[in-house]
Each structure stands twice: as C-alpha cells, then as structure tokens.
Design goal:
Radius of gyration: 16 Å
Number of strands: 0
Structural class: mainly alpha
Distance between the termini: 17 Å
Order of helices and strands: HHHHHH
C-alpha cells in the first residue's frame, strides 16, 4: 500500500511539474511542501523492506534491490535540487536550471522506476 501511495504521489508531482513547465510557470511553494510526501513514503517503504528482509522475506528478483536503489537516488536528487538544496543553488546561480522541467523529468523517471520495481515480483 505504501508503494502504491509513493507511485501516485510521484506521478502527481511529475504531472504537476510538467503542466507548469508547459505553461512556463515557476513551481509554487506548495509544490516544494508536497515533494516531502514521496520522500516520507519512501522512508516508510525502506523501513518496511528492511523489516521484511529481517523476517526472511526476499524479493522475487534480486533486481528489486537495484531498482529500489535507483528510486532512492532519484528522491535524493530531488532533495538536492530543491531551492535551498546544494545542487539547486549552484544551478540557479549559473542560470542553467528550469525547475519545472527538471522535476517533470525526474518525477517521471522515479514513477517509471517504481513501476519496474513492482515488476520484479512479490516477496517470497
């Protein structure tokens, strides 16, 4: 259930960013607050995954760990690109950063990686 909520939150944020990019608008403050939702859900999912591993469950395919790692890196990148994030500040100073476009692409990649993560099979 947490994974589904994570997927929906990531997809909604990606669509929101894509619409704002298309309209040539900046991301509003509410977007930055909403970005915390998938981050928190990922943290919960990681804890649940560790608990499941501890109890002896294993994913259907070892690739599950790779996709989980890639999703985690994507979320970390989102955090670094925030207005006060270290990478976001550098890119904004250079004038080479379109927030809405970057978040639309990154959010889409995260959502697609999450779908692929599910496709690695249920735990056994």
């Amino acid at each position: 259930m947490v994974g589904l909520l994570f997927l929906v939150a990531s997809a909604v944020l990606a669509i929101w960013a894509a619409v704002l990019y298309r309209l040539k608008h900046d991301l509003p403050r509410a977007f930055w607050h909403a970005l915390r939702v998938p981050t928190a859900l990922l943290a919960v999912q990681i804890v649940l995954g560790i608990v499941m591993l501890t109890l002896g469950a294993h994913p259907g395919d070892p690739l599950h760990f790779m996709y989980a790692g890639l999703v985690t890196v994507g979320i970390a990148a989102q955090e670094l690109l925030r207005p006060r994030g270290s990478l976001g500040r550098i890119l904004r100073e250079e004038g080479k950063f379109n927030e809405a476009g970057a978040y639309a692409i990154l959010g889409t990649v995260i959502a697609l990686l999450t779908i692929r993560l599910w496709m690695t099979g249920p735990p056994h």
